[in-house]
Amino acid sequence: MKAVIMAGGFGTRIQPLTSNIPKPMIPLLNRPIMLHIVELLKKYEITDLVMLLYHQPAVIKNFFRDGTDFGVKITYVTPLEDMGTAGAVKCAEKYLDERFLIISGDLLTDFNLQKVIDFHEENKALATITLTSVKDPLQFGVVITDKQKRITQFLEKPGWGEVISDTINTGIYVLEPEIFKYIPESENFDFSQDLFPKLLEKQEPLFGYTAKGYWRDIGNTDSYREAHHDIFKGRVNVKIDEPKQDLVGKDLRLGTDVNLDDHVTLEGTVVVGDNSQVFEGAQIKDSVIGRNCTVEAGVKLNRCVIWDNVYVKKGAKLNDSVLCGNVRVGHGVVMEEGVIVADDTAIGEESYIKRDVKIWPRKVIEAGATVTGNLIWGEKWKKSLFEGAMVKGLTNIELTPEFVAKLGCAYGTALGKGSYILSGRDAYRSSRMLKRSFIGGLLSAGINVRDLTMVPMPVLRYKLRSFGEVGGVQFRQAIDDPASTEIVFLDGDGLDFSSSMGKNVERIFFKENFRRAHHTEPGGLSELPQVMDFYREGFLHAIDKAPLQKKKFKVVIDFNHSAASQLLPGILTSIGCEVISLNAYVDEERGIQAMTERTQSLSQLSKIVATLEANAGFWLDPTIEGVIVLDEGGRVYEGAELLPLMVGLMLKAGEKGLFAVPVSAPSAIERMAQERGCAATRTKSADRAMIEAAQSSEVILAGTMDGRFAFPKFQAAFDGMYAIARTIELVARCGVPISKVMAEIPQRAFLQSRVPCVWDMKGGIMRKMSEDSLDKEASFIDGIKVHFGEDWALVLPDQYHPYVHIVAEARDPKTAQKLLTDYQKKVEQWKKELS
C-alpha cells in the first residue's frame, strides 16, 4: 500500500519557525517532524511513499533523497501552483492506482494506522476519514457520523452554538483510486471544503473511523512547544536518535562527542545533540539541545527547545522558549515563557525578553534591552525607545496603533493626573491614525489633551511657551524614510524632551506599570481654535516690517505640501512681500517627498527664482523646522554653506550678540563674528543642547548644520517659517543681494564623511582617538576635535546610528582631504584592533 505525505504548506501560522525551512522539516526532538511520520508509516509496513511538495521543496528533497537511508522508497510530486489539498493529490494520480493513505507531514500522532485501513476495507468505503476527540473542536472541522460510522454532516470550524460533537477530522484519510473522478483537473480543490461534501451529496460510501491514541496538529508555535511537553510527560512515544544513558532516575539522551560537565544539574528528559557542550553549573530540565551547541556555566533551561548551532552564554535564564538555528544569547539574558527566537539572531547581554514575544530572523537585540512586542521588520530592537526626544519606527509595522496607545499611556503615567498636554500632527493620514491611538492611551491615564490637529511644529512649540500645558507631542512622517513615523516629545517650555524625561517614560513603558484612571475620570479631549492667531500675532511683533514695506520683495517658496502653506503666505503678504507659492496645498495621500525627488524640486525652484527675477527662494522642509535658501540667481545654499550665510546676513544687518553653533560648524563663523565685535559659542550637536544655548539672553541665533535656525527674539526653537521671514528682513536691511553677502564670507575647504561602526566599538574608537590626541591640541565638547594650527579634524560618534562622523577643515582642499583620509584610515585601523 502507498501513502501520500502532504508536505507543501507555507507554515504561515507557525512563523517565525518556518522563516527559513518548510514546516514539515521543523525539528522535533532533533529530527524533522516529517521523519516521525515516515517512521510511523514504516511501523505499519507502508514504505512506498509519495511526497507532495510545494513550498521550499529542495530542502525536503535534499534531506530524504530517494528514501533509501530511511528504509523507504520516495516519489516526489511538485505542483506548479497551489492546487489545494485534493488538487495537489490529483497531480500524483498516475502513481496512485491502488488503495492509498493520505497523511500530513506536520502531525504528531501514534494512531494505529492498520486499524484505520482494516475499517476502510471492512466497510467497502470509497473514502475513510480518521477522526479523534478533542477538548476544543472550534478550530477544526467537526464530523458527524451515524451508528454505522457513515458520515452524515460536516461542520467547518463551528461556533459553540453549532457544536454537537467533539469529533474532528485529523487529516488522515484512506482512499480508493476511484476518488480521482470526483477531483477536477488543474483546479484548486480541497478535501474538507470540496471533495468530501461532494461525496456526501452523492451519497457515496464515506466513513469516519474514530482512532484511539495521541494526535496533535503542530499548527502554531504554542502547539510546537506543547508537543515537546507531551513527549517529556510520556503522552506519546517517538524515536529519539540520541542513545539513552544508563543513569538511575534520569532520562538523559546524548549524541556523539557531547561534552557534558559532571556538575550539570539535570531533571526530567534532557536530549543533547552531537558535538554540543554543556558547562558546569548549568541547570537543565525537560529540554532539547541541538547539534553543535554551547551552553555555558550557570545557564538555566526549563522546558526549552534549542536547534542547531546555538550559543547560550553564562547566567542566561530561559523558560519554555524556542531558539532556532545560529542564535546567540548573551550573558544574563532572561526569556519568559513562550518566547520564540528565529534563525541568525543575536540577543545582547542582560536583555529581557517578555512572555510570548516572537523575534523574526536576523535581528539584533541591543544589550540591556527589554523586548515587550514581536520584532518582525527592521534589524534591531533597541534598548531605548527614544532617539533624543523622538520615538521613531516603521509605520503600522513597528509603530502600530496598539504600541502607540501603550506609549501614550506610559507618557500619561509619567505626568500628574489631570495635567494638560498639546498634541499635533503633520498632514498625512498615518500620523493622524497613530496620534488618535496615542491620545487614547493618554486619556486612559487621566491626562487632558488639547488637540491642535494638523499644525506646524513651530506653532505647537510657541503655544507651549504660554501657561497651561505641561508638555506636547507631534506626529510626523520622517524626511529620511517616508515609511517611518516620528513622535516628537516636548516639555512644558516647548523644548525637546530631556534624556531623563525619556528614560522615565521608557521605564514605565517596559515595566507596564501604567496608571489607569477610574471609569468616571478619564482625561478630556478639546481643541484650541485660536492658536494660529496667537502665533501670527507674536510672529509679526518680532519682525521689523519697515525695510520690507519700503522695498517690495519677491520670494518663491516651495511649501512641500505642508501645513505652513496655510499660514505663512498670509503673514508675508501682510508685511509687504510678494509670495509665489509652490506645492502650497495639503495632500494627505502624497506623503513625504523622497530624497531623490528633493534634488529635482530644488532644480525646478532654482529655475523659477531666476526666471521671475525674485529676490530669494526657499525650500521649506516638511517638518517646517528647516529651510534651504536660494539667492537671486537661483544658487542653492544648504548644509555647511547655509549656516555661515545666515550669520553673515545678521552681521551685515548690524545685529550684535552671540551665535550658538555646533562643534562641527565651519570656523569662518568665529572669524566673521570677531571682525564685527561679536562672538560664537560652540555647543553639542544634539537639538536640545542647541536650544538650551539659545535661551541665553546673549544669543541672537542658534543654527544647525542642516538648515534649522532658532531666533530667540521670537522663540528659542527651530522655526522654518520665521527663518524665511527673518532672512527676507535681513536682506532688505543689508541693502545687498544674498549672493554678495555670500561672496564676503571667508572661504575654507570643509569636508565630511562617515565610517560604519558597530555600537560596541564606539567607546573603544573614542578611547583610541583620545590616546592618539594626547600630544595634540584638542577639544572635547562633542566628540574629539583636534586642531592643527588653523586646520582641524573632528571624530564624532553618531548618537543614534552605527556610524562615526569625520569632519575636516583646512585652508585648501588638498590639506582638508588629507586630514579626512588620515582620520578615516585611523578609525578603520582602530576597528580592526578592537575586533
Automatic annotation (TrEMBL):
Domain EIF2B subunit epsilon/gamma LbH: from-to ranges: 256-350
The entry's keywords: Cytoplasm, Initiation factor, Phosphoprotein, Protein biosynthesis
Domain named Alpha-D-phosphohexomutase alpha/beta/alpha: residues: 386-515, 534-634, 643-747
Major subcellular location class: cytoplasm
Residues covered by the Nucleotidyl transferase domain: 2-231
GO process terms (BP): carbohydrate metabolic process
A Gene Ontology molecular function term of the record: intramolecular phosphotransferase activity
Subcellular location as annotated: Cytoplasm, Cytosol
Annotated signal peptide: none
Domain of life of the organism encoding this protein: Bacteria
Similarity-based family: Belongs to the phosphohexose mutase family.
Protein name per the record: Phosphoglucomutase
Organism for this UniProt entry: Geobacter pickeringii
Source organism phylogeny: Bacteria, Pseudomonadati, Thermodesulfobacteriota, Desulfuromonadia, Geobacterales
